[in-house]
Design goal:
Helices cover 56% and strands 7% of the residues. By secondary structure, the chain is α+β, with helices and mostly antiparallel strands. Among the domains are: 160-242; 245-314, no CATH class; 485-619, no CATH class; 632-779, no CATH class. The strands form two sheets. A six-stranded mixed β-sheet has the order 3-2-1-4-6-5. A four-stranded mixed β-sheet has the order 7-8-10-9. A hairpin with a 6-residue loop joins strand 1 (523-528) and strand 2. Residues 339-361 and 471-553 have low confidence and may be disordered.
């Protein structure tokens, strides 16, 4: 077949593939809504500075993306078009570079298809219409990797290149790396790691590996350039404190809730935690009312040093934790960032579930083939200089994973997209480079003799079995429960449940017997973020297909599922003969508080198995049916009578209660709170405490129901600007009902006002069984 692909034929085929690739990109991109997130406003603000202004180069974000925004005058459509264009250019360049360095003509075509196919995966393609840094960061990384391979190719072709031209070539490579290095702070650490590895290689070249000695000027220039870029990026980050938000979030979400960790930080200089308890478990904004002593401690830089010491102190647990969340880092579900159903787009679903974005079966298969080829080639010393690029990517994979896991401060799935792409580029490069080298060997018979059954068995035992051990025994979800687990039935039958991620994959047939064996039921209720994000799905064993709840043919069955969604009560599932649920954590986190509480109630649902991505529940029988509905405010009839008889004395009769939380409520109405009370099965005293919140919810006024005249509107706007209680008093408002989400948007000065007894008096706070807190403040008019 290779002989039939003559040089001109290969060139024509490559051109045809590129034309088709551009057409698919444009077709998939057309008509996509443009999406902005909170960070987009920060980029907009920085881009208002001039090109020579300090704020452009030393700002809250690295300068590459703000410069792009400024060039296109903050026009979202033009920016999105630019992101798509850079992506196509980068991936085409990378693919053509592979065709240049590979010698086998068939592999040239296959490598180009694999590279361009990878760029069309949903996890990469969706970022082109999102006004964040991910699209350009991914594209520029691919461009930099391709440029590195091209530089090696040129140096191999010109081994006699003098030092001046080597420095010029290295400078050109650094110009390609510069915009990528200055688009995200973690990229600087990648460059530092590259510089260190190249320096080690250069030292080895002068000691033993003489092949690299002629390229010393090139390598030294690259090392100096990478170190300079890291220093510049790290220096600007330190000047403006770009790392501070991560420290705040780490303190609030991970340190304060853990007494042992809190004690470590206090012993190493952090102020006493009592003044910080108000932030415990929250996601604080960049500017919050942190105590002055803590803020000074963070600004001094000591917090970063203590955090590093803390991670060392927690070793080996801190080293293992990122691996336990393998799926979140290397195979995350990123579609929620697109805010729209991306999979319905032209060809994107296909490209997301195959070899181009290897997960599960494909990833393990490719790793197996790659390990087999590399093992043979290393034994024959048949490696080339091109291996240096994927080798550096591989060595830096875990250090970058560790750094991103402990510094992202949230949104780890998005921040880890770089290492996600890094892994796939590593596998792709090693696979095609090793195959090309393998096919070049003259003595193919020796190669086949080397690949004896004994050696293949050895590779299996050293490659696949350790992965099975990690997956099954240590619960590290390496493969999305597809390839390894059917072979591990005897070890852990509980895990052999068909995952909704793969209802359209051929591999799921391996689960038929296991699903029936484990559940013995006709249907399992599952959540599916991939079939239809956020919707419940029934998985029918006899048909083996996922059916969204709104497409269920049985009217009664559909009603039971809907009633379960509204109440969280298991009685509706048992009535529908559904005894098991297989839920994704990402789905669960999007549900109402009462639904999560119901699932946490062992009297309702027995948790059989869980990992970092999924939970398997058995629906408990014998649950007393509830008649909770909106007519009884989500309560059972008995509790509703108790609610009506409960004396409401928290506020004075006739008081005006105002709730400014437009769009930031945890609940839509008082019935949602009632459902939470039922789901949590709260005892009398705690139930009555929530009755107070329900009464407040019924009586409260919102910004839409204040009915202010122009004069009072001006007074209300003054309150919005200052949060002074006197303005609320002028409007006749006696109490203020707010939650933690609303308060997190306050500025430091506004938050400080709520701490002053001359403005507000805290009357009550609800935090148990809630995702955050609600607070009732009395307006102090004096």
């Amino acid at each position: 077949m290779q002989n039939a692909l003559h040089r001109h034929g290969v060139s024509l085929l490559i051109l045809l593939i590129i034309v088709l690739y551009v057409a698919v990109n444009i077709k998939s991109f057309s008509g996509k809504p443009l999406i902005r997130w909170g960070d987009t406003d920060v980029y907009d603000e920085i881009s208002q500075a001039g090109f020579t202004d300090r704020a452009m180069w030393v700002g809250q974000k690295p300068p590459t993306l703000p410069l792009v925004y400024r060039f296109f005058r903050n026009d979202d459509q033009q920016i999105a078009n630019f992101q798509l264009a850079v992506s196509m250019i980068s991936w085409i360049f990378f693919g053509l570079t592979l065709t240049l360095i590979l010698e086998n003509r068939l592999l040239k075509v296959l490598a180009l298809l694999a590279a361009l196919g990878l760029s069309l995966s949903v996890s990469l393609f969706l970022w082109h219409t999102i006004m964040l840094s991910e699209s350009l960061s991914n594209s520029l990384m691919v461009l930099a990797v391709g440029s590195s391979l091209l530089s090696i190719w040129y140096l191999k072709k010109r081994p006699d290149l003098n030092w001046r031209y080597q420095i010029l070539l290295a400078s050109g490579l650094l110009l390609v790396f510069f915009p990528w290095g200055f688009i995200r702070d973690p990229n600087g650490y990648f460059l530092l790691g590259c510089a260190g590895l190249i320096a080690i290689g250069l030292a080895g070249a002068w000691w033993k590996w003489r092949t690299f000695r002629p390229y010393t000027p090139f390598l030294i220039t690259v090392i100096i350039g990478f170190i300079a870029m890291f220093w510049g990026l790290n220096r600007t980050a330190s000047i403006v404190g770009r790392w501070k938000p991560s420290i705040y979030i780490v303190t609030a979400q991970f340190i304060l809730p853990d007494p042992e960790s809190t004690a470590f930080f206090v012993d190493h200089g952090m102020p006493e935690p009592d003044s910080l308890r108000q932030f415990e478990g929250l996601l604080p904004p960049w500017e919050s009312a942190w105590p002055t002593a803590y803020d000074e401690w963070v600004n001094s830089g000591k917090a970063r040093q203590v955090y590093l010491e803390y991670l060392l102190w927690k070793a080996p647990e801190s080293l293992i934790t990122p691996l336990k969340h393998w799926r979140l880092i290397y195979a995350p579900d990123l579609q929620g960032w697109g805010k729209h159903e991306i999979q319905a787009a032209f060809l994107e679903k296909f490209f997301d579930e195959n070899v181009y974005t290897p997960t599960g079966f494909w990833l393990i298969s490719l790793l197996f083939v790659t390990i087999l080829l590399l093992s043979y080639l290393i034994s024959q010393a048949a490696y080339t200089e091109y291996w240096l690029v994927p080798l550096i990517l591989l060595i830096l994979l875990y250090p970058l994973t560790f750094m991103i896991w402990y510094s992202s401060g949230g949104h780890t799935d998005r921040h880890a997209l770089t290492v996600n792409l890094q892994l796939r580029l590593t596998v792709l490069l090693f696979l095609f480079l090793s195959m090309d080298t393998f096919l070049k060997l003259r003595s193919m018979q020796r190669a086949w003799r080397w690949a004896s059954p004994h050696r293949i068995q050895t590779v299996l035992l050293t490659g696949i079995v350790p992965l099975m051990i990690l997956e099954v025994i240590f619960r590290l979800p390496l493969t999305r429960d597809t390839f390894i687990l059917p072979a591990a039935t005897a070890l852990s039958s509980q895990q052999n449940i068909l995952s909704p991620w793969h209802v359209h994959d051929v591999v799921y047939f391996a689960y038929e017997d296991n699903l029936e064996k484990w559940t013995g039921e006709d249907a399992v209720l599952v959540s599916s973020m991939s079939t239809e994000p956020g919707r419940m799905t029934l998985l029918y064993a006899e048909k083996w297909r996922a059916v969204p709840d709104r497409e269920i043919d049985d009217i009664n069955l559909a009603r039971y599922v809907r009633q379960w969604q509204e109440t969280g009560s298991p009685e509706f599932l048992t009535t529908a003969n559904i005894e098991f649920m297989f839920l994704e954590r990402s789905w669960l986190e999007k549900q109402e508080p009462f639904q999560r509480l119901a699932l946490e109630n062992p009297a309702y649902y027995e948790l059989l198995y869980e990992n970092d991505a999924r939970l398997l529940y058995r629906v408990q029988d014998g649950v007393t049916p509830t008649t909770s509905n909106s007519a009884t405010m989500g309560l059972s009839e008995a509790n509703y009578e108790d609610y009506l008889a409960y004396p409401f004395t928290l506020v004075e009769p006739g008081s005006v209660i105002f709730s400014p939380m437009r769009g930031l409520d945890w609940f839509e109405n008082a019935s949602d709170i009632g459902r939470l009370v039922e789901a949590a099965q709260l005892p009398g005293e705690q139930r009555h405490f929530f009755y107070d919140l329900m009464h407040l919810w019924e009586q409260r006024l919102t910004p839409d129901t204040l009915n202010l005249n122009p004069q009072k509107t001006a007074i209300f706007q003054e309150w919005q600007a200052t949060r002074y209680s006197s303005y609320l008093a002028e409007l006749g408002i006696d109490y203020l009902l707010v939650n933690d989400l609303w308060m997190s948007y306050l500025t430091t000065d506004e938050y400080y006002v709520f701490q002053l007894s001359t403005h507000y008096e805290l009357v009550a706070e609800w935090s148990d069984n809630l995702p955050g807190f609600y607070r009732l403040y009395r307006v102090v008019s004096g």
